[in-house]
Design goal:
Chain A: This is ABC transporter permease. Chain A: It is found in: Cell membrane. Chain A: Belongs to the binding-protein-dependent transport system permease family. Chain A: One of its GO terms (biological process) is transmembrane transport. Chain A: InterPro entries: MetI-like, MetI-like_sf. The complex is a heterodimer of chains A (259) and B (257). With 259 residues, chain A is mostly helical. Chain A has 11 helices and no strands. Chain A has a domain of 147 residues: MetI-like (MetI-like fold), CATH 1.10.3720.10. Helix content of chain A is 82%, strand content 0%. Chain A is flat and about 75 Å long. Chain B has 8 helices and 10 strands. Chain B has 3 domains: 62 residues, 3-Layer(aba) Sandwich (Rossmann fold); 109 residues, Rossmann fold, CATH 3.40.50.300; 30 residues. Chain B is globular and about 50 Å long. A 6-stranded mixed beta sheet of chain B has the order 6-7-8-3-9-10, with helices on both faces. In chain B, strands 2-1-4-5 form a 4-stranded antiparallel beta sheet, covered by helices on one side. Chain B has 257 residues and is an alpha/beta fold. In chain B, strand 7, helix 6 and strand 8 form a beta-alpha-beta unit. The chains are: A mainly alpha (259), B alpha/beta (257). The interface between A and B is medium-sized, with 23 and 27 residues.
Amino acid sequence: MSEKASFMARTGPAALAIAGLLLAWQLYADLSGISATTLPSPTRVAQQAWIQRQALFDNAVPTVRATVLGFGCSLTTAFLLSILMDFSRPLRRALFPVFIVSQTLPLVAIAPLVVLWFGFGLVPKIMLVALVTFFPMLVALVQGYEATEKEIVQLLHSMGASRWRTFWLARLPSALPFFFAGLRISITYAVVGAIFAEYAGAAKGLGIYILNAKNNFRPDLVLAAVGVSATLTLVLFGITVLVQRLAMPWLRFEQEPSR
Amino acid sequence: MSAVRLQLEDVRKSFGQTEVLDGVSLHVQEGEFVSILGPSGAGKSTIFRLLTGAERADGGAIHMNGAPLEGRNRNMAFMPQRDALMPWRSILDNVTLGLEVQGMTRKAARAKVTPLLAEFGLAGFENHYPAQLSGGMRQRAALLRTVVQERNMLLLDEPFGALDALTRTSMQRWLEVMWKRHRWTALLITHDVREAVFLSDRIYVLSARPARVLHEFHVPLPRPRDGSARGLQEASAIEAAVLDTLLIREQAGGPHS
């Protein structure tokens, strides 16, 4: 009962704010006389989305596939590299600057090039998603290892634990909160990255759908696709929160954030 | 006369230009509770870092049971400042950590630890996470994790420093009772004079950095030290003497200390 009340107290304001924005948008679109090809009302967007649901779904599938595969690749690479970099300082000094530079490349310029090199298939999308999500994940992991409590390391040392044992018993679990913080940020980048890659050239996908809708003067369909992509991101975000709860069951007992 | 377990002779250590230990000599006998008392930053923790092998001494000798202390396995159980419990492990799994690192299977380690939980006031809490426990309980879990390793010696680094005053006092009394029962050989670092007098057989008072042993106090108070009137009087006399040594020398140390 009280749990339900506190849930309402936490989510109520956000729901009200979103409802208020939608209402304002609807009223403006209806009353200002603005043309539907410039600013369609939310009800029109919803209506068109429903009519086009099959096309939206068909285009969302490749986007989800590129997002998940690209994110999976970047996660695996980031994890393996983070371990190597944690064990080898020279490797860390060699690679970190390279990764930082990779983050300075403007996606607008890189996306068409990657499509040019690797074609319209799945590969360039996976690569672009990996490019935008890899670095935040790597930084999160490396920082997480560093955040291991000194006393715990000293304790394990006094017990005679090897470097690898210490990593496994202390440094890796200590990185979990950082890992999930990075995961939540990257997963939102991932969807945007996939759509951007499709925008630069694809046979199917939300990105190319948005591009076509824009070229056909259908802002209602652009917004419908935007709504689908936002929903996708929220779902993926929700999954990461869920996974974190399952992976870190002790978290709900920690009232204040750790030192 | 029981055997000398740990012996430090003229141990020196510097970090760069900073001289931390300026020839520290002390010893701990088997079954003895010894405290090292000194001002903050005097290098007390450095002594422990040398003992656990985290640092190497620049000079002098450290012997354990007559043999030089070296290598990875130091046969000492270390209890750090703050409890250093792993938040992601249950209390039971935290307590078995040292045994697991020694190579015991998780199952065997649990079987060994489980009967001891009640004595440490942790029965019924083995599946709780550290965040669910009070500060005192966490310290008891940390101490159980330390003693269950069955090492030659306990190294206690200000184990109650992070607790509130009341919990600290009750933990000191509890530790005294436990120590009397088990007769662990223990070396305690503290800057709490009362704690040192209450728990120890002997106390080494260190100077400010670079640390030397200023004075060695014997604490011939009867155990258990439950706070009876006569014991209290003698204890305060020793406390006063220890404090005098600490404070007068600190003043003599002059403005640069």
